[in-house]
TrEMBL record:
Name of this chain's protein: (+)-abscisic acid 8'-hydroxylase
Main location: membrane
Catalysis performed (reactions): 2-cis-(+)-abscisate + reduced [NADPH--hemoprotein reductase] + O2 = (+)-8'-hydroxyabscisate + oxidized [NADPH--hemoprotein reductase] + H2O + H(+)
Source species of the chain: Dendrobium catenatum
One Gene Ontology cellular component annotation held by this UniProt entry: membrane
Length: 474
C-alpha cells in the first residue's frame, strides 16, 4: 500500500517536532547551539553600530531584541554578551576558571605583561594577596590624614576658578594612588614618574603603531623610563632597609618587596603602573558624576551637606582645636553620603562591561560558548534593569537603604578579579566630599549634557564647573 506523500511529509514533520519537544526537556541537549544574535559584516562585525553612538544604546537594544544572553561580533572578535545576574555570576564567580581575562596585546605591552589583570592561577592569587594586604581597611586607615591633605590642596587650587571637573579629579586620584603605592617617597622622584605617566596615558588609546614620532612610540619609551624610575626607588629602599634594619612603610611597594613573597623588579613595575591605571580614571569618573548629580539634586546635596557638617561640628567639640582630621570611625558615620556614591556608581556604571575569554567550549543554559570567544558581562544592563532597580534611570540614593540582591549590583565586579582597591576608592571619595560640601559651592557651567566614553563613561567635556569657597562669600 502506497503512503500518500502528504502523510509522509506530516510524519517526518511530526518526528522532528517530537524530537524537538523531548530534546528541550532533556537537560544537556545533544546539539548545543550558539546564543541568538547577529554577527554583522565579516571581520568588522557590528563594531560601527557599537561605536557610532552611545554603546549603552547598542547593548540595551540587543538585550531587548535577543534576551539576556546574545552573540555579536566586535573589533574582530566573536563574542557573547551576558546581562543577567545569574549569567554574570556564572562567568565571574562560579565558573571563573573557564573564563580568563583578555586584553588587546598592545594594551598588555603598555601596562606591563606581568600586571595582575592579565593573570590567572597561582601567580594571580599571589599578586592579589600582596595587593589586598596594602589596600585592606587596616592598611588604608593609616593613610587618611595623607588623603585628606591631598583633598584640601586640590580643592583650594580650584577655588574661584572655572574648572574641568574630570581633570581636577584625575589629579586628586593620581596623588592618592601614588600615596598608597609609595607612601611618603621623595617628591622629585614622584614628580618625574608623573611626567612619564602622562605621556604613557596619551598613547594608551592611540593606534598601536610603534613608529618614531607616533604617540604609541612615545608611550612605549615613557613606559621603559617608568620601569627605570620604579627600579631606582626599589634600590634606594633596599639600601635604607639595610641601614636601618627595619622597614614598614605600609604601602603597596613595601607589600611587593616584602621578603617571603617578593616579586622581581619587572613584576613590581608592571603591577605598580597597572594599579595607577586601574585607580585613577575610574575614581575620577565616579567623582565627576557625583558632582554632577549633587548639583542637579539640591535636596540630596542638602542632606549630604548636613551629614558632613554634623561630623565637622562633632570633631570640633571632641578635639577642641579648630579642625580635627577625619578618622576611620568618622568615615563609617556617613550613610547618606555612602548611598549617593552607590547610586552614582549604579546610574553612571562607568565600567559598562568587562571582558573575558572562554578557555574551552562552555555550555550555559543550553547555549554553546565556543572556546576562544570573548564573553562580556554587561554591568550597566544589570544595573539598569527595572527588575533589579525600579525606575532605573532615576537618581535616587534612598533605594540603597535596602541592600541590593547578590550579583545585581557590581560596580567593583565580583569573583577572583573583583576590585581590590574598592575600600580605598570609597575612602578617598568620602574624604573629598566631606571637604567639598562643608566648604565649597559649585555650579555647572554651560547647558550641554551628554555622555562621552574614554573609555569610562563621563559627563560631556569632563563637566565644566565654577567652584567657590563658602567662606569667601560670607
Ligand atoms: C570607583 C573607582 C573604581 C571602580 C569603579 C573600579 C572598578 C573595578 C572593576 C569593575 C574591576 C574588575 C574588572 C574585571 O573583573 O574585569 C576592577 C579591578 C581592579 N581594580 Fe578597581 N575600581 C576602582 C578603583 C580602584 C582603585 C582606587 C584601585 C587601586 C588602588 C583599583 C585597583 C584595581 C585592580 C588592581 C584591579 C584588578 C584586579 C584583578 O585583576 O585581580 N581600582 N576595578
Ligand atoms: C558575588 O557573588 C557571590 C556568589 O554568587 C554573591 O554571594 C555575592 O553577593 C556577589 N557579590 C556582589 C557584589 O554581588
Amino acid at each position: 500500500m502506497a503512503i500518500p506523500p502528504v502523510l509522509l511529509i506530516l510524519s517526518v514533520l511530526l518526528f522532528f517536532l517530537l524530537r524537538y519537544i523531548t530534546q528541550k526537556k532533556r537537560p544537556p541537549p545533544a546539539t548545543k547551539h550558539l546564543p541568538p544574535g547577529s554577527m554583522g559584516w565579516p571581520y568588522i562585525g557590528e563594531t560601527f553600530q557599537l561605536y557610532s553612538n552611545n554603546p549603552n544604546n547598542f547593548f540595551a537594544e540587543k538585550q531587548r531584541k535577543y534576551g539576556a544572553v546574545f552573540k555579536t561580533h566586535i573589533l574582530g572578535c566573536p563574542c557573547v554578551m551576558v546581562s543577567s545576574p545569574e549569567a554574570a555570576r556564572f562567568v565571574l564567580v562560579t565558573k571563573a576558571n573557564l573564563f580568563k581575562p583578555t586584553f588587546p596585546a598592545s594594551k598588555e605591552r603598555m601596562l606591563g605583561p606581568q600586571a595582575i589583570f592579565f593573570q590567572g592561577g597561582d601567580y594571580h592569587a599571589r599578586l592579589r594577596r600582596l595587593v589586598l594586604r596594602a589596600f585592606m581597611p587596616e592598611a588604608i586607615r593609616r593613610k587618611i590624614a595623607g588623603v585628606e591633605e591631598i583633598a584640601v590642596r586640590v580643592l583650594s587650587s580650584c577655588d574661584g576658578r572655572f574648572i574641568n571637573t574630570f581633570q581636577e579629579m584625575k589629579t586628586y586620584a593620581l596623588n592618592v594612588a601614588l600615596l598608597s603605592i609609595f607612601g611618603k617617597e621623595e617628591q622629585s622622584c614622584i614628580e618625574e614618574l608623573k611626567q612619564c605617566y602622562y605621556i604613557l596615558e596619551k598613547g594608551y588609546n592611540s593606534m598601536p603603531m610603534n613608529l618614531p614620532g607616533t604617540l604609541f612610540h612615545k608611550a612605549m619609551k615613557a613606559r621603559k623610563q617608568l620601569g627605570f624610575l620604579v627600579a631606582k626607588i626599589i634600590s634606594s629602599r633596599r639600601d635604607s632597609e639595610a641601614k636601618t634594619d627595619q622597614f614598614d612603610a605600609g604601602d603597596l611597594l613595601a607589600s611587593f618587596m616584602e621578603s617571603k613573597e617578593a616579586l622581581s623588579d619587572d613584576q613590581i613595575a608592571d603591577n605598580i603602573i597597572g594599579v595607577i591605571f586601574a585607580a585613577r580614571d575610574t575614581t575620577a569618573s565616579v567623582l565627576t558624576w557625583i558632582l554632577k548629580y549633587l548639583a542637579e539634586n539640591p535636596s540630596i546635596l542638602q542632606a549630604v551637606t548636613e551629614e558632613q557638617e554634623e561630623i565637622r561640628r562633632s570633631k570640633g567639640k571632641i578635639e577642641g582645636d579648630e579642625e580635627g582630621g577625619l578618622n576611620w570611625a568618622d568615615t563609617k558615620r556617613m550613610p547618606v553620603t555612602c548611598r549617593v556614591i552607590q547610586e552614582t556608581m549604579r546610574v553612571a556604571s562607568i565600567l559598562s562591561f568587562t571582558f573575558r575569554e572562554a578557555v574551552e567550549d562552555v555550555e550555559y543554559e543550553g547555549y554553546l560558548i565556543p572556546k576562544g570567544w570573548k564573553v562580556l558581562p554587561l554591568f550597566r544592563n544589570i544595573h539598569h534593569s527595572p527588575e533589579n532597580f525600579p525606575d532605573p534611570a532615576k537618581f535616587d540614593p534612598s533605594r540603597f537603604e535596602k541592600s541590593p540582591k547578590p550579583n545585581t549590583y557590581m560596580p567593583f565586579g565580583n569573583g577572583t578579579h573583583a576590585c581590590p582597591g574598592n575600600e580605598l576608592a570609597k575612602l578617598e571619595i568620602l574624604v573629598f566630599l566631606h571637604h567639598l560640601t562643608t566648604k565649597y559651592k559649585w555650579s555647572i557651567s554651560g547647558s550641554k549634557s551628554g555622555i562621552q566614553f574614554g573609555p569610562f563613561a563621563l559627563p560631556l567635556d569632563g563637566l565644566p564647573i565654577k567652584i567657590d569657597s563658602l567662606a569667601e562669600k560670607n
